[in-house]
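Let's do one together. I've listed all components of the complex below, 695 residues spread over two lines.
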Amino acid sequence: MTKLSRLTALIVAALLALTACSGSSAQSGPKSLRMTVWTANEAHLKLLNEIAAEYKASHPDVTEIKFDTIPADGYTTTLTTQIAGGNAPDLAWILEESAPDFVSSGALAPIKAKVEKADELVPSATKLWEKDGELYAYPFSTSPFGLFVNTDLVRELPKTWEQAVAASAGKNLVLPDFKYQNWAVLSAIWRGWGANAWSEDGRTCGFSSQEMKDAMTFVHKAIFTDKAIPGPGTTVDFFAGNAAMAISQISRAGALKDAKFGWTLLPLPQGPKGDYAVIGQAGVGVLKRSKNADAAADFLGFFTNAANSAKLAQFFPPVRQSLLNADTLAKSNPLLKPEQLQSVVIDGISKGVTKPSHQGQEELNQTIRAALDPLWQPDANIGQVLDGVCEKIKPLLERQ
Amino acid sequence: MTFWTYRRRDNLVGYLFVAPALLGSLAFVLIPLGMVGWYSLNEWNVLGGTFEFIGGENYKQLLADEKLRDSLVATAWFAAGLVVLNLSLALLLAVLLNQKLRGTTLFRTLFFSPVLVSLVAWTLVWQLMLQPEGSVNGLLGVFGVDGPNWLRGETTAMVAVIVVQVIKNVGLNMVLFLAALQGVPAPLYEAAKIDGAGAWRRFRSITIPLISPTILLTSIITIVGSLQVFAQIAVLTQGGPGTSTTVLIYYLYQQAFQFHHFGYGATISVLLFVIVAALTLLQWQMRRKWVLHES
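Okay, and this is what the predicted structure of the assembly comes out as:
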């Protein structure tokens, strides 16, 4: 063999190796599962891994269950990019705003048969994840919005939105996830006025309704006149004690474990339309394209059975009727008092509505965000801006 | 006669030497480029897992897309602002730092150092500084100026994004200009002085023509770079307020990765490719007119 032909052989071998890498082999025998989650919290992951370890012990064919953290910021974008790149996870935690896209597209495998006692799941919580009577993701974490109050700064606890804004004027009423971008968080306020982003069937825009105009006028006044809600571009941290109140999901209560100030949790204040509740949600679904879809669905059934739901309840409020009582929840939520658990969590989950979600949600999100931007100026023409929102999203709502 | 003549052997060795680089650019440049072209002819629903050939539909959509027009306008403003500000500032700094004065090394280091800073870290710090109560407005306050809410106004947001980018990268062009300036022969200036030429005249008639190849190079780099600015927009404004800073590449990202229209996203990237290629070609043609020493 000459030097040259040896070199040629080497290159051919390298090329063969390269092409071999790109080929994929079907999974058989030992299976490994991957689930994408947004949380990087150590306590959360520890609990998830404990449940996974228990499952593996009784299912020797499943050799690995890996929880893959994707940062919450851009979670859905990263997840869909993984799917597009042919690297779909077996199970995925899905945020409520992408629920309609995932459920309607056929990306998820049906799981109802695998869910233990599926009939005891609270209907208001499963609604988002159902199509034609089948369940496509388990509403894994259902977290109502509540009003956190810093009792060092506020003496009299508010019952209505008027009172809440008056009490926090100059002392900050914050919406931690809003940032003048995630407008859907404002539904925690405008539902009190009976306003909605769009109609039940998702075809008619709700931004130009009188209820919405009244609600947004109230929000605008709370920002620019009453100076209660911090203005655009200003960040104030309630959990560090810098704000009188915060509208946030109760799963945030954990951040108050070592709080240096007195605090309490109240249900959302009353609006002109009386009591109401808004919930944020995440579901866990099985990707149809997964090579181990059956094993993944089986694990999901175990992961969400009554016993494990009870364990998970300390971080992720459960949707099982049997667990939704103050006694059970109190065991896993030492930070909250039984009456708070009853009024905010249990009542919230059973009567709450989820944040707005729609097919093509991300495009709607960006379009509405852009159309709402002019509203966040002191001299905004509120009615005109809201009519403009409807004009912009009309074609998107009709497209479904 | 044997097959392996010397010539053929030599050729083979040559091909083998370039093979690694060629394979690399084939795998990571040419094939992806071709695939983008192919995707742009298809409707690709990532979630549903469907991939359907639709011919020129995406290109028809491109022509009718009003948001794309807004985005092109934003891109043009951004690119124009960036190139003018970046090149003039870089040249000014280079001329100043080319003087034989004390401390020039320190200043050169100072102006160049942002180039080395991580882009996202740089942008995040600026985001804090540009807050209504941030240090930029604090500084303006010292001079009695009531600064705006930079990232929330349509014009101020664009200005902010441009300036943040210029300060980040001006050092690179400055160094290129400095090198060019030091290559200008001193006797030319002496001769001009004897002829009675003033400082401005010397700059215009000697410096500019002699460094024109560098001006061409930096303007190509800067224009192409300005069309590819993404992280700053993603961190500072997310394309807002309204759609005022949704430049083409950010719009592409939204369509493909946020709205899941991968096919249409690919179509926009074909458009971006054409624009960059056309601009580069145009500048290359223009060099004959104004770049010295080019035949």
